[in-house]
Design a protein that fits this description.
Layout lengths: L1 H9 L4 H13 L8 H12 L9 H14 L3 H15 L7 H17 L3 H13 L8 H17 L3 H14 L8 H17 L3 H11 L7 H17 L4 H11 L10 H8 L6 H8 L16 H17 L2 E3 H8 L3 H13 L5 E4 L4 E4 L22 H32 L1
Antiparallel strand pairs: 1-3, 2-3
């Protein structure tokens, strides 16, 4: 075999003919157990040629294809490809394209064996090489997305964040953006935001993906499901209310088993223990994990929602009474409320000496609904105040419902 390679190298034929003859030598080597050293020896012999390397590059790419097509088993191919990658490292400047092709194939083999971290590592090492100059932005973007997906397969979101940020930088430079690769990029963004408990941003991205025509119907509904889950888990406040409105007005949401809790949260109704138990069946581990203060993500979301819900029912409430609603100690109930007020997610104030929380009704800021009744300073007896509160709440709910109908009609007309 070595003599044949030397003979071709020293011949006077043109470059294309030399390439064809080298490939002929390669394909004369049986791709069977015991011959991996012969194939690797052939590659090593080619890499030792110091001139006319342009004729060798297509042969190296052909080696990858030949072994893949004719391998006796995956382990045979993995050994050959790994050895070829080692031999190419010192010559990456001359054989950049071939070296990357070998890496991509080795990553394929690792993925077939579900060795996702190894697959990501092989690809990441290739992109981090300072000698890499010729790789197009299209290939870089696709490779970064592939690295991210491999890390996410094993739940290693921290390792996925750096290649994801690199992909985001390269993406605007891509000349021919593949729609499927871009979907995977967007989905990876959503999954990492979800894992990092940035639920509102994750919900928005999941919802956008659920509307992509290039995504299969089943996957679109899965993304819509995650959008609803993340929205329910996101911090209660105006931003979440806007996201809830978009999801509630999406007709597809009514097909989801989570629609019941979406509706309750959207209309600011109190969440009962049974609601929480039913909802928890659809959550992933990080959705129910404990945070640094020992509170779970789910319980925090439910508590904040119920504080907001209580604020829609009462103009003021005692801290101890609120604590009973939330099934918390009074100090903890006050802490939740104070934090939401400080973050402008709840309109109100706390009167600590009297142990009262005063809520500023949303109706006060909506002139079209008229002025809300000042229950805190009302001279009516308890029954009269309750009736007025219920009346104002009914008017508010009716207006919200009418607004939803108008939005739905506008969406259909569009």
């Amino acid at each position: 075999m070595e003599g044949q390679v030397d003979s071709i190298t020293n011949s006077q034929v043109d470059g294309n003919e030399k390439t064809s003859q080298y490939i002929g030598v390669l394909e004369s080597i049986p791709c069977t157990e015991g011959n991996e050293e012969v194939i690797c020896g052939f590659v090593e012999k080619l890499l030792g040629i110091t001139y006319g390397r342009a004729t060798i590059k297509p042969v190296l790419l052909r080696v990858v294809e030949y072994v893949q097509k004719n391998r006796p088993d995956a382990e045979f191919e993995k050994r050959v490809v790994r050895r070829c990658l080692e031999m190419l490292q010192p010559l990456i400047i001359s054989f950049e394209e071939a070296e990357m092709a070998v890496r991509q194939r080795l990553a394929d083999l690792y993925q077939e064996d579900e060795e996702y971290v190894e697959a990501a590592r092989v690809l990441q090492e290739g992109l981090s090489s300072s000698d890499r100059r010729l790789l197009s932005d299209d290939v870089r973007f696709e490779t970064y997305v592939r690295i991210v997906r491999n890390y996410l397969e094993t739940g290693q979101t921290e390792l996925a964040e750096l290649p994801l940020s690199r992909a985001a930088i390269v993406r605007p430079k891509v000349g021919n953006l593949d729609p499927i690769t871009d979907i995977h990029f967007k989905l990876s963004q959503a999954r990492i935001l979800d894992s990092n408990r940035k639920f509102l941003d994750a919900s928005t991205r999941y919802h956008l993906i659920s509307r992509e025509a290039a995504v299969e119907e089943e996957d679109r509904m899965a993304c819509l499901t995650q959008a609803v889950i993340c929205c329910v888990l996101s911090p209660a406040g105006p931003a979440r209310s806007a996201a809830l409105r978009r999801l509630y007005n999406d007709e597809r949401s009514r097909q989801l088993p989570q629609f019941g809790i979406l509706e309750k949260v959207y209309f600011d109704r109190l969440l009962l223990p049974q609601d929480v138990e039913d909802f928890s069946k659809y959550l992933q581990a990080h959705h129910t994990a404990s945070m640094s203060d020992g509170i779970t993500v789910l319980s925090k979301a439910v508590t904040e929602h119920n504080v907001l819900s209580v604020s829609k029912i009462y103009s003021n409430i005692g801290i101890s009474e609120l604590a009973k609603f939330l099934d918390l100690e009074p100090a903890k109930a006050e802490e939740y409320t104070a934090k939401m007020i400080a973050q402008n997610r709840l309109a109100g104030k706390i009167d600590q000496p009297d142990g009262l929380i005063y809520f500023k009704s949303n109706l006060d800021t909506e002139p079209a609904l008229g002025n809300s009744y000042d229950y805190a300073n009302s001279t009516l007896d308890g029954t009269g105040a309750v009736i007025l509160k219920q009346r104002d709440q009914n008017i508010h709910d009716l207006c919200m419902h009418l607004e939803d109908i108008v939005t739905t009609i506008q969406n259909i007309s569009a």
